[in-house]
Amino acid sequence: MNVSSPGTPQDAGTVHAASPGPHARDDAPELTARSLDFDGSGTVHVIVQADEVRVLLSGEIDASLAGEFRSALDVIAAESLPVTLDAHHVSFMDSLGVAFVSQVALASPTGRTRMVHVPPTVRFLLDVTQTSDLVDLVDQDGQNG
To answer: Which CATH number does the domain housing residue 91 bear?
Structure first.
């Protein structure tokens, strides 16, 4: 798990230039792709900001991240700020990932936890397990979903 504080932003990903392909035009803008995990392994990044704790989830959110989940929960409890979970780059989530979302919601010291950029498969899991009752699911920052 990576933890960043205000004033020390941390880029969890890398930027790679996409190859132009066989039908590329000379006047077409150069394409870039942002990827957090090409190999699919999951990551948990905690960014402590002045007004919230943002937890960025990417890749496969599963049992292999148990230690990172515990560390993130420790930071959330220590900071006493609203929590936003960002699931934009989640490709897979198992039951331990769903349990982590529940634990964050229950540990959040300042009210409801927001979860932004939730992929349809993750939204389905949260709905089926009724975890969506514990968090505010929003399509984009600031918009209810």
So the answer is: 3.30.750.24
